[in-house]
């Protein structure tokens, strides 16, 4: 099939590479200009550079709604559009243009976690599996019929970075497999159960701020979700910001006020956690490694030279 590809960052790069390695003909690529947004500088392999290396025409757009782009798409005469990590809405005059419509590739198990940063949100929320879904695009974001979907489990120590590497490796088989299904003539796919749908916004610095009223289990997942190269989870100690780089859920149960720097357990320093911590039934978050405002990384046992005081959400 003749394919036009819309995509950005490493997800789009992997999609384009899969298409170039397939029997399909990539006739045009549309991608975004480089961005300084903190999350868009991560996993930023260039779709434009890869297309140019293979002699594929490239258009740079923030939004796909101008007349020149419409004309170029019509000239390209695609059988299908494939999109992955396109960051703005594709209007119907774009996604309905090809003979077979538009296939969108999304790194979640739709209908759950439509929208942005699905792996991070899924890990924070304690999901036991994540994956990649290829679905036909329609008027509602990430809501079209599913052509192919692959699943990977989430382990108890996994970080968002671990899950990224596992799911990005699924892009090629999911994308090319879905195109093969479409090329075979199938037109009926799996309807999404919209009663199970959820939609998440882009993450920002505010979403990495630690709230000590969360349970230790939730905070442990937040720290793992905000793993390098993502912006780390952070808190404040004596008015100064510290980043929490590694932690675990304490074995012991600790009562008191959330945020209290309380006790050494193993290699960690336990912080009281949970809105109902006063009852003494909660595990704490044992911090093992921190980064200070001046960029120093050190074990928590070296940073917290004495117990007492509080970690807070704001200075």
Within the largest sheet, what's the order of strands?
3-2-1-4-5-7-8
Outline? elongated
Q: With helices defined by DSSP (H or I, 4 residues minimum), what is the helix count?
A: 9
Sheet with the most strands, sense and barrel status? 7 strands, mixed
Mean pLDDT score: 97
Helicity level: 10-25%
Number of DSSP strand runs: 16
The gyration radius over C-alpha positions equals: 23 Å
Based on helices, strands and strand pairing, what is the structural class?
Answer: alpha/beta
What's the arrangement of secondary structure elements?
Blueprint: E1 2-7, H1 9-21, E2 25-31, H2 47-53, E3 58-60, H3 67-76, E4 80-84, H4 92-95, E5 102-106, E6 114-115, H5 118-124, E7 129-136, E8 146-153, H6 160-168, H7 171-183, E9 199-200, H8 216-225, E10 233-237, E11 240-253, E12 261-265, E13 268-271, E14 283-291, E15 297-299, H9 300-303, E16 311-312
Parallel strand pairs: 1-2, 1-4, 2-3, 4-5, 6-9
Antiparallel strand pairs: 5-7, 7-8, 10-11, 10-16, 11-14, 12-13, 13-14, 14-15
Characterise this structure.
Residues 1-169 form the Formyl transferase N-terminal domain. It holds the Pfam family Formyl_trans_N. Residues 205-306 form the Formyl transferase C-terminal domain. With 315 residues, this protein is α/β, with parallel strands linked by helices. The protein contains 9 helices and 16 strands. It has helices at residues 9-21, 47-53, 67-76, 92-95, 118-124, 160-168, 171-183, 216-225, 300-303; strands spanning 2-7, 25-31, 58-60, 80-84, 102-106, 114-115, 129-136, 146-153, 199-200, 233-237, 240-253, 261-265, 268-271, 283-291, 297-299, 311-312. The strands form 3 sheets. Strands 3-2-1-4-5-7-8 form a 7-stranded mixed β-sheet, sandwiched between helices. Helix 4 (92-95) links the parallel strand 4 and strand 5 (102-106). The model has no long low-confidence stretch (mean pLDDT 97).
């Amino acid at each position: 099939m003749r394919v036009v590809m819309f995509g950005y960052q490493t997800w789009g790069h992997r999609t384009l590479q899969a298409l170039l390695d397939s029997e399909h003909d990539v006739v045009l690529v549309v991608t975004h200009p480089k961005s300084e947004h903190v999350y868009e500088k991560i996993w930023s392999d260039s779709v434009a550079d890869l297309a140019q290396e293979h002699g594929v025409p490239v258009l740079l757009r923030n939004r796909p709604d101008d007349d020149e782009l419409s004309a170029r798409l019509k000239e390209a005469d695609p059988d299908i559009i494939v999109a992955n990590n396109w960051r703005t809405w594709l209007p119907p005059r774009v996604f309905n243009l090809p003979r077979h419509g538009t296939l969108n590739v999304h790194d979640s198990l739709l209908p759950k976690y439509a929208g942005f940063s699905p792996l991070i949100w899924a890990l924070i929320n304690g999901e036991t599996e994540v994956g990649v879904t290829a679905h036909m695009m329609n008027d509602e974001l990430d809501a079209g019929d599913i052509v192919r979907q692959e699943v990977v489990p989430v382990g108890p120590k996994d970080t968002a970075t671990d899950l990224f590497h596992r799911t990005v490796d699924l892009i090629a088989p999911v994308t090319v497999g879905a195109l093969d299904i479409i090329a075979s003539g199938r037109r009926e796919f799996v309807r999404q159960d919209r009663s199970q749908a959820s939609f998440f916004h882009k993450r920002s610095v505010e979403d990495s701020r630690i709230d000590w009223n969360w349970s230790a289990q939730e905070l442990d997942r937040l720290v793992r979700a905000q793993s390098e190269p993502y912006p780390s989870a952070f808190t404040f100690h004596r008015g100064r910001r510290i980043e929490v780089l590694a932690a675990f859920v304490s074995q012991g149960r600790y009562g008191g006020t959330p945020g209290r720097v309380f006790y050494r357990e193993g290699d960690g320093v336990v912080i009281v956690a949970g809105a109902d911590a006063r009852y003494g039934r909660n595990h704490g978050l044992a911090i093992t490694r921190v980064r200070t405002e001046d960029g120093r990384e050190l074990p928590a046992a070296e940073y917290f030279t004495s117990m007492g005081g509080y970690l807070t959400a704001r200075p």
